[in-house]
Write a structure and sequence with these properties.
Order of helices and strands: HEHEHHEHEEHEHHEHEHEHEHHH
CATH architecture of the largest domain: 3-Layer(aba) Sandwich
Distance between the termini: 43 Å
CATH superfamily of the largest domain: Glycogen Phosphorylase B
Helix content: 25-40%
Structural class: alpha/beta
Largest sheet: 6 strands, parallel
Number of domains: 2
Shape: globular
Strand content: 5-15%
CATH topology of the largest domain: Rossmann fold
Radius of gyration: 22 Å
CATH class of the largest domain: Alpha Beta
């Protein structure tokens, strides 16, 4: 019996980690490949794990294989290994132009197979609150972060920035929504060539949660609320009750779904322009983009929006319009169907 080790048990080569091995989830991949052949499927979408491609192709020579990437693994892992797998892919979809262009540049021979399909959101569910216009009269303004409580998400930078904000604008609160759980170094820090991401390695020598809690001293502890994991269907209320959404990612964020949801609800966004996020948030229109890892710049952006109600309102309205135009499920499905037609699917 083949026993597969957990993905965080590395192989010793950061470009060839165990989670990228053809043996990782081999049994699952075989079951899927056999089932696809039995059902005589026309197309299959795979997400992130390129090692499934050769296995599925071996059992389904005429199947259209679409590999959807929401991370940078194709350009971070061993080039020759990925190159062999991409030969069997009919269409490679990136969740942002950032991912798509990096893949094209790394594998120019497959450039014509690489396209972008933005992440979609339900714009009929994530909607502005009917009472949102009254938030300007609230004495306490609410800042919101939603995401993993992990170093690459920049929560430590947010807390440093918030401490500066409170000094000038004490009538403010910060809610941090998300589950605790640091992403393994093998998945991110050891694969990245970004010095800022590599600097996060220091957080793996200590408990990140404790590091964050140590920042909450004095009055600051009364203004920061960690809500923990929240089911996705409950998040709309968190967005609607906030005045500013903050997304301070330090790593090269492939896309970023929370900013899309915040904009859909009509909340202005402050984010870092890392990875594909700059494609999602329109700087100066639907929010503000600040340098990653820069708590001073983040604090200044927060104070700017706190002190200008009209700007918050205008950015919120523009964000809603942007999401409806670019990220609705109707728009995303239409785009995907066009890609299917280009592959000859449905003819």
């Amino acid at each position: 019996m083949l026993k597969l080790l957990p993905p965080w048990v590395g192989s010793g080569n950061p470009k060839h980690p165990l989670f990228a091995s053809k043996l990782y989830y081999l049994g699952y991949a075989l079951q899927v490949a056999i089932d696809l052949r039995k059902q005589q499927c026309d197309v299959v979408h795979l997400f992130n794990f390129s090692q499934f491609v050769p296995i599925i192709r071996a059992f389904n020579p005429h199947l259209k294989i679409i590999l959807r990437m929401s991370c940078e693994w194709l350009t971070q892992l061993d080039h020759s290994m990925i190159q062999q797998r991409l030969r069997e892919v009919d269409l490679l979809i990136g969740c942002s132009d950032y991912i798509t262009e990096k893949t094209r540049n790394s594998f120019p021979e497959f450039a014509n197979r690489c396209q972008t399909l933005l992440n979609g959101r339900d714009v009929n569910y994530f909607v502005p609150s009917k009472s949102q216009s009254k938030t300007a009269t609230k004495e306490i303004k609410k800042l919101l972060f939603i995401g993993r409580i992990s170093p690459e998400k920049g929560v430590h930078v947010l807390l440093d920035a918030f401490a500066k904000v409170v000094e000038s604008y004490p009538q403010v609160q910060l809610e941090i929504v998300g589950s605790r759980g640091v992403v393994p170094k093998e998945f991110m820090v050891e694969l990245s060539d970004n010095p800022l991401v590599q600097s996060l390695a220091s957080f793996y020598t200590e408990d990140y949660w404790s590091h964050l809690q140590n920042k909450l001293t004095g009055e600051l502890a009364k203004k920061v609320f960690f809500s923990g994991y929240t089911p996705h269907f409950e998040l709309v209320n968190r967005y609607q009750n906030s005045d500013i959404f903050i997304f301070p990612s330090v790593w090269d964020e492939p896309s970023g779904n929370p900013p899309i949801e915040a904009m859909a609800v009509g909340v202005p966004v402050i984010s870092t322009p890392t990875g594909g996020t700059a494609e999602y948030v329109a700087d100066g229109k639907t929010g503000l983009l600040v340098e990653p890892g820069n708590a001073t710049a983040l604090a200044a952006a927060i104070l700017r929006l706190l002190e200008h109600e009209d700007l918050r309102k205008a950015m919120g309205e523009a964000g809603r319009q942007r999401v409806v135009a670019l990220f609705s499920w109707e728009r995303v499905v239409e785009d995907l169907l066009c890609k299917y037609e280009q592959l000859g699917i449905g003819d």
